[in-house]
Here is the input.
Amino acid sequence: MTLSAQQSDAVVDDDLGSQLAAERAHLDLSRAALHRMRERAEALFSAGGQVAGDPYAAEMLGRTLSRRVAELADDPSTPLFFGKLDFGGTPDSSDPDRTDPDRREPDNPDHADHAGRSYHIGRRHITDEVGEPLVLDWRAPVSRSFYRASVRDPQGVATRRRFGFGAGVLTSFEDEHLDRGEELGTASRILTAEIERPRVGPMRDIVATIQPEQDELVRADLADSICVQGAPGTGKTAVGLHRAAYLLYLHRERLRRSGVLVVGPNRAFLSYISAVLPALGEVEVAQATVEDLVARLPVRATDDPAAAVVKHDARMADVLRRALHGYVCKPEEPIVVSDGSYRWRIGADALRRVVDEARREGLPYGTGRERVRARVVGLLQRQSEARRGDSPSDAWLRRMGKAKPVAEFLDAVWPAVTPEGLLFTLFSDAAALATAAGDLLTAEEQALLLWSKPPRSAKAAKWSAADAVLIDEAVGLIERTTSFGHVVVDEAQDLSPMQCRAVARRSEHGSITLLGDLAQGTAPWAATDWRVSLDHLGKPDAAVVPLTVGFRVPAAVVTFANRLLPALAVDVPPAESLRRDGALDIRTVVEPSGVDDATVAEVRAALAHDGSVAVIAADAAVERLRTVLTDAGVEAGTAEDVESVARVTVVPATLVKGLEYDHVIVVEPAQIVAAEPRGLHRLYVVLTRAVSRLAVVHAEPLPTPL
Ligand SMILES: Nc1ncnc2c1ncn2[C@@H]1O[C@H](COP(=O)(O)OP(=O)(O)OP(=O)(O)O)[C@@H](O)[C@H]1O
Here is the structure.
C-alpha cells in the first residue's frame, strides 16, 4: 500500500501526521544547517584576502570562496530535499565506520554498507555541526538508488519516499515499499503534479523526478559521448543540463579547469534554461549559441540561401584546408644569412626537407610555419657551432629567427595567412577558388561563393553568419582551438556539418551530450541521420539513445501534432505522452479579418487559467498580433525577455524551439508552413510547445496532413 498525506490538516492518520511533523523538523534542521554552512563560507570569504599569501592566491581563494557562497544559496521556494531512502536490514555493528559518523561514507554505492540507514536526498549536501549528513546531494552515488531502485532491483532500498511541497512548505509524502513489492513508477502523484504544474517563468530543474531512463543518461561516464534522440518534451534539455551538473560534481577539479559548455539554438532559449544549473549549485557553466562560439567578427551581411547551403556543406572544410596548404611552396633558393664576419648558407635541398617534414607532421598551419622557422634556425645554429666552437646565445637564436633572409624565405614558402585573408582570397578570386575547390564544388557552387563586388581588402569585407563559421574553421586550421571538458549541444538536429565541426573543435579532448529530434529540424542543412552529425562532431562511436516518454505535451495534442510526422521524412521512434489531461481546440474563422478577434478571444479565455500563454505565429504576423493584443488591453511580452511579468508572450514561430507554455495559441498554421522551405517541420515544433492546452486559430485551410 502507498501511504500518502495530503495537506497536513487533512491528515487522517496520527502516524502519518507525526511522520510529516518529523520530516518538517528535519527540513528546519537542514535549513538551519545550510544557513550555518553559508555563514561560515561568507566569513571565510571576507577573511580570504588576509589569509592568502600573495595577490594571485588571494584572488583564486576569493573566487573559490565566493563560488562556495553562491553554491550554498538557499532559495526558500525550492525544497532542500525531495526524497528519502530507507535501506532495509540492520546496521553492521562490527563496522568501525558505523560508530564514527565522520568516517562513514554516504557516497559508497555498495548498498550493503547502508543497511538500516536512511538518507534524505536533496539538491546539495548539507551536514550538521559534527559533519553528519542531513541531506545528500542527488548526485552522490548512493542517491542513484533514489532514481533507479525498483521492485525487481531494489538495491537494498526498503522504502522510497517522495515529498510534495507547496511554496516551500512540506505538505505531503508518498512512499513506495519496494520490499513489499510496491512501486508507483509514473503513477506517482508527486511526479504527476510536477509534470502537470502550470508553467511560469524560466525552466526548472527536475532533480526530484528524474526518470530511470533519464537517470541513465544523466549519470553516463564523463568519457562517454552520447546522442539523445527524443520527441518533443521527453526531457532532452533537462537531461543535458542535469548531466552537466552531475559531471561537475563527479569531476569537479578537472572540469573546472577545462570547463563545461552548453550550446543552445538562440538567446531566448538560453535565457529560458539559464536558471537550471545555478539552482543546482553550478554557477560556472558557459552557455552560448553556435553563433556566439564563432563570433570572431561582427556579422554584417546576409547570404543568398543557396550560397549559405554551400558554405555550410562539409566539403567546405576540404576546400579551406586545400586553399590554406596551397600557400606552402617548394623552396627553390638557398638562404644566405650574414652574421658579423660570417655568412651562413642553407641549400635549397635542405630547406625542401625541412618544409616537407613540417608538412608531414600535420600541425596547424601557423604552428607549422613556426616549426619551419625553428628548424631553419637550428640549421644555422649547427653551422655557427661548428665554426665558432660554442653554443650561441638565446638572443642570437632570436635574431636569426627574425633575420631578413629567414623571414623572406618563410614568407615565400610558408606565408603567414589570416583566417579572414584566406576567405577573402577564395571569395574574390575565381582562379584561387577553382584551384582549391575544382573537383569538390561544381562551377555553379563556386559561382555562388564568389562576391559579385569584392571588397578592397579582407578588413573591408562584410561577413555573413555562414562566413563566420568558415572563418572559425580557418582559425582551427591555423591554430589549435581550446577544448572544453564536456559540451552539451541542444537542438543539435539544426547544426550544419560546418557548425558540427566548430563544436568538434571545442570538444576535441572532451566528451559531448548531443540532444535533438530529427523531426524538429528546420534548418536547410538539418540532420537526417545522427551518425552523420556524430562523424562531423568527431564522436563517431557515440551511442544514439531514444527517449520516448513525453512529459510536456498532453496526449490529445501529441496525437494532433503527430499527424505531421509522416510528411516530415524522418525515421524517429514515436513518443508516448504521460499526460492524459489537456485540451485541443481548433477554431475555424470564416473571414481572414476575423482571425485577430478570435486570437484576442482565445487569449482572454486562456488567461482564465493559471500559467503562461503564448501566441505563436509566422514571423511576419508577430508585430501585428502584438499591436492587436495591446489595443485590446492585453499586455504581451517577447520570448527574449524572461524578466517580463506579462503572462502573455507573442512569439515568432522561428524562435519557439525548445520553449514551452501552458497555453499555446497558434495563429494561421498555413502561414507558418508557407514561410520557409521546412515549414512543416517548423509547424511540428510550434504545435508541440503546449503544456496544457493548444488552440489553433485559422481562416486559411489547415495544412494537408492536419
Ligand atoms: N522526469 C521529469 N520530471 C518532471 N518533469 C520533467 C521530467 N522530464 C522532463 N520534464 C519536463 O518536461 C518538459 C519538457 O522537457 P524538455 O524541455 O527537457 O524536453 P525536450 O525533449 O528538450 O523538448 P523539445 O524537443 O521540445 O526541446 C519540461 O518542463 C521538463 O521540466
Remarks:
- Residues 1-12, 96-108 have pLDDT under 50 and may be disordered.
- The pocket of adenosine-5'-triphosphate is lined by residues 194-195, 206, 209-211, 214, 230, 232-238, 517, 520, 551-552, 658, 660, 688 (CB under 6 Å).
